[in-house]
Structures are given as C-alpha cells and as structure tokens.
Design a protein that fits this description.
This protein is mainly alpha-helical. Helices cover about 55% and strands about 10% of the residues. It is built from five helices and two strands; from the N terminus they run ααβααβα.
C-alpha cells in the first residue's frame, strides 16, 4: 500500500481531499443500497458488511497519508439536506488556494 501511496504522492498533494465522516451503519446502508440498485455489473465484487466496515476503519485510521496535503479536511456529514453545504464550503475554501 505504501508504494502505491508514494507513487501517487504528487497527485494527492495537488488534490483537494475531503474525508466525509459518517456513522458506520449509515455508510453501510448507503453503500449496500447503491450496490443493490445497480443495473450494470461492476468491475469489482460487492463487499460484505464486515469487509466494508473494515475498509472504512482502515481509511479512518490511515488519515496520516494526507498529513502533507495542503488541501485536506475532515467533515462530519449526515443523510440530510444540509450536510452538502459543509462540504461545498470546504471545496470553495480549497479552490481559492
């Protein structure tokens, strides 16, 4: 994994990275809901719940990958009609830099 991260370091450093924090069960419900509604076959298999939650956990625990990324934010979001505003504000903030 580290080799891949360092290979992509320049791309990551130039990116706007926003980590959307959401309750694990909500994330899972959103994910499985999208996966089960797909009409076309994916290039990857649908993850099982424990696999998906493990991936989320690993992503949360490895946020240090972005420690040198100048345009990085963590934003707590919900399944609502207003969380997008918080994300939009972050994108706007980072677009100006």
């Amino acid at each position: 994994m580290e080799k891949e991260i360092f290979r992509l370091k320049e791309t990551i450093d130039k990116s706007i990275v926003i980590f959307l924090e959401k309750d694990g069960d909500v994330c899972w419900k959103n994910y499985i809901g999208r996966e089960t509604k797909k009409t076309e076959k994916s290039s990857y298999p649908t993850l099982k719940k424990d696999e998906y939650l493990d991936m989320v956990k690993m992503f949360e625990e490895n946020q240090s990958v972005y420690k040198d990324t100048k345009r990085y934010s963590r934003v707590k979001v919900k399944n609502d009609n207003s969380s997008w505003r918080k994300v939009f504000k972050e994108v706007e903030k980072w677009r100006k830099t």
